[in-house]
Task: inverse folding
């Protein structure tokens, strides 16, 4: 009887672990689907999306909470999963103004990470929001491997220009310019052509002197 109870207890524990594993997989798959739908991850591989989904932390913030503050250090990247948020910035003009609102699925916090500078705007929750917080290093590494899509880069440049028109965003271009050029191997290095000996000057054979009475050859 005791042995039967032990077996039943083990089976119950295994079923609980299985349910937890299934729930964890479902949550990860949901995160991957959300990340895959964002233009900033358009060129990212499935493996990279899985790493981001696993490393990201889900957070809930109440309404009127400031998620990122203009001027603060850029540390993390955020995905808006649920709720509404607003974007406010003073920028180079020094006058705070509303730049727009964010609805899910959306993201923010990328400009400071891509430009390696402090936050260029404040993002505040209008309603209670659910967010995925991804570490800045993980975010930059993912885009370094996959390369940033032109659409996402263009959008980031436009948003940066609205607040800091004197700045430019060149993510990925500096690395490409600094990358060393590949060296050719000995087999790939083209061999220099062997100089050919000069031919001796041509001499007229005896009896080949031009005849002054011979008509000229036709032009071809």
Result:
């Amino acid at each position: 009887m005791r042995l039967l109870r032990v077996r039943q207890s083990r089976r119950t524990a295994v079923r609980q672990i299985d349910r937890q594993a299934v729930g964890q997989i479902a949550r990860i798959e949901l995160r991957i689907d959300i990340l895959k739908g964002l233009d900033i991850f358009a060129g990212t591989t499935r493996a990279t999306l899985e790493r981001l989904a696993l490393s990201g932390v889900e957070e809930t913030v109440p309404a009127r909470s400031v998620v990122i503050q203009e001027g603060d250090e850029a540390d993390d990247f955020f995905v808006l999963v649920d709720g509404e948020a607003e974007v406010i910035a003073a920028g180079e003009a020094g006058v705070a103004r509303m730049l727009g609102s964010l609805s899910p699925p959306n993201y923010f916090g990328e400009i400071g990470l891509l430009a390696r500078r402090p936050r260029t705007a404040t993002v505040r929750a209008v309603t209670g929001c659910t967010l995925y917080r991804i570490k800045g290093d993980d975010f930059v590494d993912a885009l370094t491997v996959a390369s940033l899509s032109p659409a996402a880069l263009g959008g980031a440049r436009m948003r940066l220009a609205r607040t800091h028109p004197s700045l430019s965003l060149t993510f990925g271009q500096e690395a490409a310019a600094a990358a060393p050029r590949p060296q050719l191997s000995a087999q790939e290095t083209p061999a220099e052509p062997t100089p050919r000996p000069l031919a001796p000057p041509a001499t007229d054979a005896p009896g080949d002197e031009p005849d002054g009475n011979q008509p000229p050859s036709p032009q071809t």
Remarks:
- The chain has a mean pLDDT of 80.
